[in-house]
Design goal:
The protein is of the alpha+beta class. The chain has one domain. It is about 20% helix and about 20% strand. Strands 1, 2, 3, 4 and 5 form a five-stranded antiparallel beta sheet that branches. The N and C termini lie far apart (about 25 Å).
Amino acid sequence: MALSADLLEILCCPEDRTPVALAPDDLIARLNADIARGALKNKAGAVVQEPMQAGLLRKDGAVLYPVRDDIPVMLVEEGILVASAA
């Protein structure tokens, strides 16, 4: 993935301003499998239909923000509650 270390250093959760870091590949794979089954919703309650190439995980591990086409989608409603993911 093409996110620079400098960019990762300044990005934070738009909801509570805690730091984010690249999510582990196994988590992205699990969430993408949920997306393929139509079983993953974002914080707005919409079914996530587009697979993620990566994600930015909030420091507490509760919320993941998708990265698509090397662009972090840092919108509160696009966040995925990791604990509630199938």
